Automatic annotation (TrEMBL):
Protein name, UniProt field: Aminopeptidase P family protein
Species this protein is from: Aurantiacibacter sediminis
Transmembrane segments: none
Record-stated family: Belongs to the peptidase M24B family.
Annotated InterPro entries: Creatin/AminoP/Spt16_N (IPR029149), Creatinase/aminopeptidase-like (IPR036005), Creatinase_N (IPR000587), Pept_M24 (IPR000994), Pept_M24B (IPR033740), Peptidase_M24_C (IPR032416), X-Pro_aminopeptidase_P (IPR050422)
Residue ranges occupied by any Creatinase N-terminal domain in the UniProt entry: 9-140
């Protein structure tokens, strides 16, 4: 029997928990690979609650339930999740463990799926609940799966080879380097469960997860350089198996856990941030020694080869022309009042599709008109869609997946026909100044992203304002649009990636912003490549950024009086390069629009 209401689904879950003698259950947004985006089969939180955000969790108890989200989703959770069924809790101020301890009596048993949480999370939660006399129970199966009658099956999509001309390195070479590392660390094998790492090591791609070209699978690399790839056999065409060769043994995905027995008595590397609790637990059960080590693919994957860098430049140029066609169309149509957030996002996608090279979007387009633009991770839906009103601010953050690269760009535009208010121009120009400051900075090798973050915020800080997201994230090569380990963000240590030194070959976003609640949002985002720099009289080795994204920036929102001569020169040089890159791809009205948009300040 299919349950159409979220109330009925919650009731069914509570009946299942009672059958298992449980007093509660954790429901995260997660899959067994801890992916940022998860397949339809793993959308358990959305099915149960209706929540469509990309970060959050729920806790279901016998008589109470709560949704835990951060400040990005304060409005969205109230729009999508019934307040009669769930309390709204804001993290990090509200902690699930504290809420459970308040609601549950001593002796309560709270379940969790060990394939959806890290070991660190489980240990910390176990310790917190134990203080209240509450037991945390690792379950053999997920109770939501038991009541979700029409739960989708995992994707059957075939995998395909990512050609060496795009990767610049053969898979055998990558496995060999991992094998050398294992031997140096006196380890026998490594379990790799992050989907983009599996794809990178094997030079394969898939279509199992929206927006990220990966395949649901696990990989064990042995110290002799051979590997066991656990994937549904029907997903692997003969030509892929042949290309991988005999050194990669293809085994059924559902045999992954049973294969741990082969590791008995061995020292096995497992990444505690990218692998779930169950992997550690099962390895220990069979007598293996799981050793906490960072996934050996993470850092080399982030340092792009010459082939990957060239691919990115080609993808950015192609994508830039598509976005420019969209901006020209938008400038003509939006002031008529006939465009809304959904139709704008669809039109932008159509321009990318017209390239004939688009394989997917790299994430759901953030199409934010007016007040919705102030939600920095806004996701447009039929329920929230706003029109692009004349004389308003529109923010569009989007990207594409192409065989040669992954793009991510944000532009903020003024929907005419009137002049932007002075405050909007002031804020936009301060964001622009921060963007330029980061783009032009040189820095010594060994510099972490956290050391650069304030460069992008300084002009906003001078006005007493800030933004509540990081300034830059890593980007993959036809892989995840959000890729570690590097970041440009506040803080260090506790914020993963901010202590990672930036290394030549890494690609990051440069995306400062400003958001005025209930009014408008501003963000300017380009992708940049970390490159070596020569400085006269320099001592030691230095780095800087090569800009990869070339699309005009909204001139009507710039307050020229706030820019220094050096910043004006950056603007003019940047737009000269935009014209150089894009003009050969455009013609007619689109070329005329580009010429006008690239005029010097």
């Amino acid at each position: 029997m299919l349950m159409q209401t979220h109330e009925a689904r919650l009731s069914a879950l509570r009946e299942e928990l009672a059958r298992r003698e449980l007093h509660g259950f954790f429901v995260p947004i997660s899959d067994e690979h801890l992916s940022e985006y998860v397949g339809a089969y793993a959308q358990r939180l959305g099915w149960l609650t209706g929540f469509g955000g990309s970060a959050g969790s729920a806790v279901v108890l016998k008589d109470d339930a709560a949704m835990f989200v951060d400040g990005r989703y304060t409005i969205q959770v109230r729009d999508q999740v019934d307040g009669k069924l769930y309390d709204y809790k804001s993290v990090p101020a509200d902690k699930p463990g504290d809420w459970i301890a308040e609601k549950c009596a001593e002796g309560a048993r709270i379940g969790f799926d060990p394939w959806l949480h890290t070991r660190g999370w489980a240990k910390a939660m176990e310790k917190r609940l134990a203080k209240a006399g509450i037991e945390l129970v690792a379950l053999d199966s997920n109770p939501i799966d038991a009541v979700w009658a029409d739960q989708p099956e995992p994707s059957p999509a075939k995998v395909f080879i990512q050609d060496d001309k795009f990767t610049g390195r053969m898979g055998a070479e990558k496995r060999g380097e991992i094998a050398d590392w294992l031997k140096e660390e006196k380890l026998d094998a490594v379990v790799i469960s992050a989907l983009d790492s599996v794809a990178w090591v094997l030079n394969i791609r898939g279509a199992d997860v929206d927006h990220t070209p990966v395949a649901l699978s696990y990989l064990m690399v042995q110290a002799d350089g051979t590997a066991d790839w656990f994937i549904a056999p029907d997903k692997v065409p003969d030509e892929v198996a042949s290309a991988l060769g005999n050194a990669v043994r293809i085994r059924p995905r559902d045999s992954f856990e049973a294969a741990f027995a082969e590791l008995a008595g061995k020292r096995v590397a497992v990444d505690p941030e990218r692998s779930v609790y169950a992997i550690f637990d099962r390895l220990e059960d069979v007598g293996a020694e799981p050793v906490q080590e960072t996934d050996p693919a993470v850092l080399p994957k982030a340092i792009k080869t010459e082939a990957e860098q060239a691919g990115h430049r080609a993808a950015q140029a192609r994508d830039g022309a598509a976005v420019s066609r969209f901006l020209n169309w938008l400038e003509g149509e939006a002031p008529k009042g006939t465009v809304d957030e959904l139709s704008a996002a669809a039109k932008l996608q159509s321009f990318r599709e017209a390239t004939g090279e688009l394989l997917d979007l790299s994430f759901d387009t953030i199409s934010g008109a007016g007040s919705n633009g102030a939600l920095c991770h806004y996701r447009v839906s039929e329920e929230t869609c706003l029109p692009l009103e004349p004389n308003s601010v529109y923010l569009v953050d989007s990207g594409g997946q192409y065989k040669d690269g992954t793009t991510d760009i944000t532009r903020t535009v003024w929907v005419g026909p009137g002049e932007p208010p002075a405050e909007v121009k002031d804020r936009f120009t301060r964001v622009l100044k921060g963007h330029i400051a980061l783009d032009t900075q040189t820095f010594p090798t060994g510099t972490p992203g956290s050391a650069l973050d304030a460069l992008a915020r300084q002009f906003l800080w001078q006005a007493g304002v800030d933004y509540a997201h990081g300034t830059g994230h890593g980007v993959g090569s036809f892989l995840a649009v959000h890729e570690g380990p590097q970041r440009i963000a506040k803080g260090s240590g506790s914020q993963a990636g901010t202590d990672q030194a930036l290394i030549a070959g890494m690609i990051l976003s440069n995306e400062p912003g400003y958001y005025k609640a209930n009014e408008y949002g501003i963000r300017i985002e380009n992708l940049v490549l970390v490159e070596e720099r020569e400085i006269e009289g320099m001592e030691g080795d230095w780095l800087g950024f090569e800009t990869l994204t070339f699309v005009p920036i909204e001139k009507r929102l710039v307050d020229r009086s706030l820019l220094s001569e050096a910043e004006v020169a950056w603007w003019n040089d940047y737009h000269a390069k935009v014209r150089e890159v894009l003009a050969p791809q455009l013609e007619g009205d689109n070329l005329a629009w580009l010429e006008d948009a690239c005029q010097p300040l």
